[in-house]
Design brief:
alpha/beta; six-stranded antiparallel beta sheet
């Protein structure tokens, strides 16, 4: 029996701490998988179209475009996507508007984790979900409707008109009572001996009745009725027609899907619409797009890459800002995967493939270094490997590269002595915030090669400070090269350990010098393996 795929979830919530808490909570369920998160309505639309999640947890009070408007947009483009309004608002207007936008469920942020899980399961089964707190308010409203003589004051209720067309049935009242008690739809179905579909239908009927009653009440009062969301208009903030699920970027590009994510941004697969040319589109995460320092760094990366041309370097040929003031860069698209994912799929590299890959990395780095640029973040995830029999390599992500042509500007956005990079692959001088040159990239590449050829990290500390201590004071172990199944030419191992010297003067002094040494390695030789 094939393994069932997990339910994929997109979290659209403007508070980073709430997003983090939701992700931690949902990770407890093996059949759920958070595939993306974002902090504003525009990004919610873009992410939804890119990753096509099964469920979206949508906050109402999102910046740029609110959650209700974003939900309507997404429902139009992805009608099979289920949206649960996950919000602190119990205002009746918001509930009515959410229903009109096509929300499949409405949960308050105070909902218990098991109830949120039940809500996700319910909407993916085709049912509609009501938060226990909302169900309780509806139940109180129904009690008020049935007992007009009652003098009890019901606060924050959702009034239903006392008419034959809007009164809840006994079945709906019974289900509301169980929902208000926190029962899942499955539990209700068992207790009432009804099918899950019938229970879901009754909940949907309750919501339809609620919306109908609300419209009637507003009409009786002579107020503006709840109208369907209207697309278009001057306040669309650059969100255009989605053209069969593709999202426009600027006036020349469309997003087709997600290629990868990092701490600062996300890379999409897209195309140039006029030339029908595949491209890679890199954008900052929404929470970083408003940070002038991060945006300046992002632009510096684009400027750096635009100056370089080499088969083993990714090329940037356009840069722009969307109508929502979000910067993006356009790069050549290359099919393949990051080296870390390649290792997960294939295991440690054999000598032949590994030497071929790192010759290409060094060839690309030599061009970078000749331009006076230090990458400063060489690691497996920044090396893209094609899926060909003889893999082709691209070095990517120059977001923290040191470029002398932009150094004056860089000093404004990078504090002196700032430690930048990824701790596992940082040189001793990088760990201490010293001035860096090409030899720092050589050390980082030594760490990458060690890991790729052995399957073990050069150092594996428990914290950033532990990693710094190890890079500064400890020599990497040679034992991983003697593992069963690991066999590499002795000269290859010596190249790696020379690159890992603590003192930059004891390493290769350039990528060209290291490449020359690697060219001399005979990977086919069986009489030059590592020996004690």
């Amino acid at each position: 029996m094939p393994e069932q795929k997990p339910i994929t979830i997109l979290i659209a919530e403007d508070q980073a701490i709430t997003r983090f808490g939701l992700k931690c909570s949902l990770e407890a369920y093996a059949d759920l998988k958070v595939v993306a998160d974002c902090g504003d309505g525009v990004s919610a639309i873009l992410q939804a179209l890119a990753v096509k999640p099964n469920v979206i947890l949508m906050d109402i009070g999102l910046p740029k475009i609110d959650g209700i408007r974003a939900s309507k947009e997404i429902k139009q483009a992805l009608p099979n996507c289920h949206i649960i309004m996950f919000t602190a608002s119990a205002e009746k207007e918001h509930i009515y508007e959410a229903l009109e936008a096509g929300a499949d469920g409405y949960c308050l942020k105070t909902v218990a984790g098991e109830h949120l899980y039940a809500a996700i399961k319910a909407v993916t089964s085709g049912a509609t979900w009501l938060d226990p707190g909302i169900a309780h308010k509806l139940l109180k409203a129904q009690d008020k409707q049935s007992s007009q003589e009652s003098s009890a004051v019901i606060t924050s209720s959702l009034p239903l008109k006392p008419s034959p067309n809007s009164a809840l049935s006994e079945e709906q009242v019974a289900i509301l009572k169980m929902l208000s008690a926190g029962c899942s739809l499955e539990t209700i179905a068992k207790q009432t001996s009804a099918s899950l579909g019938n229970v879901g239908g009754l909940v949907q009927g309750t919501l339809d009745l609620l919306l109908k009653a609300a419209k009637q009440e507003l009409n009786d009062k002579g107020e503006t009725p709840i109208a369907p969301y209207k697309t278009g208009g001057p306040d669309r903030q650059g969100i255009k027609n989605y053209q069969d699920g593709r999202t426009p970027i600027g006036d020349r590009y469309e997003i087709d899907g997600v290629l990868g994510r990092g701490g600062m941004g996300i890379v999409y697969k897209g195309k140039h619409v006029l030339m029908n040319r595949p491209v890679a589109i890199k954008m900052l995460h929404p929470e970083h797009a408003a940070d002038d320092h991060v945006v300046a760094r992002f632009q510096t990366e684009a400027q750096t890459l635009s100056q370089l041309s080499h088969p083993n370097l990714v090329s940037v040929f356009d840069f722009g800002v969307t109508a929502n003031h979000e910067p993006y860069m356009i790069m050549d698209f290359h099919s393949g995967q990051s080296l870390d994912n390649f290792l997960i799929a294939q295991g440690p590299l054999d000598s032949d493939i590994g030497v071929s890959i790192f010759k290409q990395v060094l060839s690309g780095l030599s061009i970078v270094h000749k331009a006076g640029i230090v990458h400063r973040d060489i690691k497996p995830s920044n090396i893209i490997v094609s899926q060909d029999r003889n893999p082709e390599v691209k070095i990517v992500d120059f977001g923290i590269a040191k470029n002398p042509s932009t150094e004056k500007e860089r000093l404004k956005i990078t504090n002196t002595g700032e430690v930048v990079g990824t701790p596992r692959y940082m040189s001793p001088e990088q760990c201490t915030g010293k001035e860096l040159d090409a030899r720092s990239d050589i050390y980082a590449l030594g760490c990458v090669m060690y890991e790729c050829f052995t399957g073990k990290a050069t150092f594996d500390g428990d914290s950033f400070y532990d990693m710094v201590r190890l890079h500064l004071n400890e020599a990497p172990s040679r034992l991983p090269f003697f593992q069963p199944g690991v066999s590499h030419p002795k000269e290859l191992v010596e190249i790696i350990f020379k690159a890992l010297n603590k003192n930059p003067d004891d390493r290769y002094q350039s990528a060209e010098e290291m490449l020359e040494a690697l060219n001399k390695v005979s990977t086919m030789s069986k009489n030059a393996q590592v020996a004690d």
